[in-house]
Amino acid sequence: MLAVKVNQKSAEDVKRLLKARQLMVKHYDVYGRDSFIYFPVSRLDVGTKRELRKFGAEAVKSNAFLMRSHMQYRTMLMNELGPRAYRDATKSYDILGNIAIVDGDGREARKIAKAVMAMNKNVRTVVRKDGAVSGIYRTRRYRYVAGEKTYTATLRENGVVMSFDIRRSFFSNRLAFERARVSGLVRKGEVVMVMFAGIGPFALVIGKAHPDSKLIAIELNKAAYECMLGNIKLNRLKNVKAELGDVRRMAKKYRHVADRIIMPLPKDSYNFLDAALAASKRHCVFHYYAFDSASEPYKEHIERITRFFEGNGRKVRFIDMRIVRPYSAREVEIVLDFAT
Description:
- A seven-stranded mixed sheet has the order 13-12-11-14-15-17-16. A four-stranded antiparallel sheet has the order 2-3-1-4.
- The chain is built from eleven helices and 17 strands.
- Helix 5 (106-119) links the parallel strand 6 and strand 7 (125-129).
- 32% of the residues lie in helices and 30% in strands.
- It has three domains: 2-61, Alpha-Beta Plaits; 69-150, GMP Synthetase, Chain A, domain 3 (2-Layer Sandwich); 172-339, Rossmann fold.
């Protein structure tokens, strides 16, 4: 079986990366040998291997993985669901704490729900997608399928607890590694602005890890903002300031205060570079998220960012750039870290 081998000191970082990219095989236990941890994985692309090398991790072959106890369900579920539904049940779903989100309609969704709940003891509710992410708040409709009838997810990530209504707020568990990565770059005493903050994941993770820093988290969606207030209280954070309102208006309120600005709105981040410029100090680090072509993911945004900031009298230095996740067959989500 394909595995990722890493020193124990970097195991948590590697685990977050593999989970964020949904590469870990669900039905086998992680194991340790000597001072190394071995993670079972389904596949590894070139970009992921490059990221893993930063942690001193490598791809190896291993026959030492043990099946988890829930594999006793395998034969029963395969026979009951059929190959297609079983494949969907074991691969095509997301878990947000106590809630699993599946694809499929009607009877098929109920079958998949049964399998998902059997294989994930912490899942108490299963819902299915009922439409695409849409609107300025990036929300999605869901339909109840099985278990407790609730749409409130509660989950733990990177040391913080978050609770929110999945119908009223956007949240992506696939950015967990990004939140940990950016938090690791924050320096002592920085003022960090998080635009399009949602329920607060970036701000919460950074605020928890850096109590000496100040976080300004801006969100337009009132429902998400109220969840963020609750999550700040839930995690007892005194250094996170939630703001309800438009990013451009808030940038005027916080003119030239930010040492670091996070822009996690991949569809439209470019349209808010003017707000980022207004809120940033002369020397500021930016984390800019965007969607782009999988074949040439960085060029257009590098040119746009350079043209904008140099047109406003600032030189741009690109620090890092990486593919965050596949978005569609032809598009990927990227992040560009740059300083001015």
